[in-house]
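Q: Structure tokens for this one, please.
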Amino acid sequence: MNKYFSKKAEGKALKEDSQEIGYQKEKGKNIATQEDIKMITSQIESVKNEISFENQRKNNFINQRTERLLNILYLTEKFNEYKLLLMYDLYDKNSSARLTILIENINNTLLQLIHEYRIAFITLSDEDLKKRIASLIEPAREYAGYMGYIASTAISHLTNSHELMKLATQNDNNSALLNKVIESKQQLSEIRTEFEQDIDAKEKPLYDCQIKYLSKLNLMFKSDFHIVDRSNSITK
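A: Here is the predicted structure, written as tokens:
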């Protein structure tokens, strides 16, 4: 009888062990399946993130390119603003400080334009577009240089006139000094006349290149940007 119960207990134990082994195997399969699902899900999310990042990078590049192309146009148009400021300051006897600031602004704008051109040249693949941007640089440099020359010459004449007038006043309106004051004012008048006569011709090469550049932008962006024709805009 004891043998019977011993065998029965042994069989029950074997059955339970078999069931436990089967359960553990099935559980192991389930765990493996869940881990596989997690791994696959993680890989899918990683791919999604990479695609999202790549799309964002492309969008950022396009936005930066667009901003740079429009900024190049903006910088070239700044020179025309400086032209009008220069005309105003040439008729103001107390404009030496403003003329100095104007020269700095002209030079800074030219440097920014050249910087934008260099970046565009590296990042753009459109050779025609790069050529049209490059064509803006030399006329912009000449235009800026001419305005800088006019402004610096005007500063010199204004400064001389003020200093000579101060000396003449301190020396009982010394006639020789007063004559030099008149001479400085005449030289300032001559530089104004030179500016008025030559500035439109100095501006035109840049304007022509702006129009060609703008036509390219209009094609790219399917837009209708335009620049006002400023030829003969300064009159005596």
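A few notes: The mean pLDDT is 81. Residues 200 and 232 are 6 Å apart (CA to CA).
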